C-alpha cells in the first residue's frame, strides 16, 4: 500500500515524501482513512509505530479542507499529551507535515513562562498541543478558548491516566463542544482506558496494530543477571565492549538517574540525565546533545523518557526494572522503531526477581537470560526490599497496587485527586 491511496492531498503527500517515508505503517494505513471520514477512533499503538503521523496527517487534512470563512482564528484542534517532551515532539510533527499549510500551532506546557503562551494564543492559533495541567491554568485564567474545538486527540491516554490526569482530562472534555471528532491513542487498551473511552468517544473505529501488551517484535530482548553492586561496572563494560554510540538507560528514580549519569561520566562515557526535577531547558538540551551524538548515554526515568522521539535508537538498557510491568513495554518501545531492529537489555539483581516475574506474565513468555562472563551474580546475595516503607500515611503514604510507595510515583505526575496549581504536576 502507498500513501497515495489514503485520501491525503498533494501538499501532505509531498511532506510525507520529504520525510523519506515510502509506505504507511500499519497504524497509519488504518487510522488515516478512518479519521478522514470524520468518525471517532480509538487506536492501540505505542511510540515507534508511526502513530503521531497517523493522527497528525488526517487532522491537518481535515482542518485545511473545512476552513471557516473569514473571522478570527480559533482553536479547532486540541491534542493532549502526558509530558512536555511529547507535546514538543507532536508540535514538531505538526510543523513538519503541515509547514506548507496556512495553519498556526501553539504548544502549551508547564515549566516555562505563561506569558509567551498567552501572547501566542492571543494572536490566534488553529491547533493547540498541550499537557493537561498548564492547559487548565490557561482555561482558569480565560486565556484559551476551547469552544471552537472540532477535533480532540488524546495521545498516550494510558500514560495520562497513570500520571493521575484523569480529572484534568474530564475538565478539558467538559470545556470542548460535544459535537466533535475524538481520537484516542494508547499503548494498551486497559479496562480503565476502555472506561474513559466509553464516556468520550462515539462509536469509535477500533484499531489495534500489535497484539495487546506485546513488546515490539523486532526488539531483541535479554536479561543479564548480575549482583546488586556490579550493575554499573557491567553497564560500562557493555557500552565500551560493544562500542555503543547511543544508549538510553532507565532508572527507577530521579536521584538514581543523576547518580548513574555522574558515575558513567567518571568512567569516561559522556552521559546526561533527564527527569522531572530538571528544568525544561536542561531536559531539552540533554536530549539535543544525545540526538547529535555529543552525549553517548542518556539516563532517564520512565516519565521523562515517555514518547521521546529518537530515530534509530539501537540500545535500551533497563538499569533497574520498572515498578509497573507495562512500563517495560513502553521502555523497550524506544528501540526497534518503525521497522528497524534494536536491542533491549535488562540488568537484573536478586531484588528484582518479582518485578521480572510480573514482566514475564505480561509478555506471556520469559525473556532470554545471559550471564556476562566476569559478572556472574553472587549466589549468596539475598533479596532486599526495593522500596522504603513510607514514614507515615500522610502526604506520601498511599501505596500503588504493585507495592511501590506513592512517594515513588514517576516524577511529574499529579496524584489522583490533586488540585490544579499543586507543584507536583508536570504540565
Ligand atoms: P511515532 O510512533 O509517531 O513516535 O513515530 C516513530 C518514528 O517513525 C518517527 O521517527 C517517525 O518519523 C517515523 N515514521 C513515521 N511514519 C513513518 C513511515 N510511514 N515510514 C517510516 N518511518 C515513519
Automatic annotation (TrEMBL):
Reaction catalyzed: ATP + H2O = ADP + phosphate + H(+)
Location within or outside the cell: Cytoplasm
Species name: Alkalilimnicola ehrlichii (strain ATCC BAA-1101 / DSM 17681 / MLHE-1)
A single MF term (Gene Ontology): nucleic acid binding
Annotated CDD domains: DEADc, SF2_C_DEAD
InterPro entries, A to Z: DEAD/DEAH_box_helicase_dom, DEAD/DEAH_RhlB, DEAD_box_RNA_helicase, DEAD_helicase_RhlE, Helicase_ATP-bd, Helicase_C-like, P-loop_NTPase, RNA-helicase_DEAD-box_CS
One of the GO BP terms on file: response to temperature stimulus
EC number: 3.6.4.13
Biased composition, class Low complexity, residue ranges: 401-411
Protein's job: DEAD-box RNA helicase involved in ribosome assembly. Has RNA-dependent ATPase activity and unwinds double-stranded RNA.
Record domain DEAD-box RNA helicase Q: where: 1-29
Ranges for domain Helicase C-terminal: 237-380
Region (Disordered): 373-427
Record keywords: ATP-binding, Cytoplasm, Helicase, Hydrolase, Nucleotide-binding, Ribosome biogenesis
The Helicase ATP-binding domain, residue ranges: 32-207
Origin: domain of life: Bacteria
Motif Q motif: chain residues: 1-29
A cellular component annotation (GO) from this entry: cytosol
Protein name (record): ATP-dependent RNA helicase RhlE
Keyword Ion transport: no
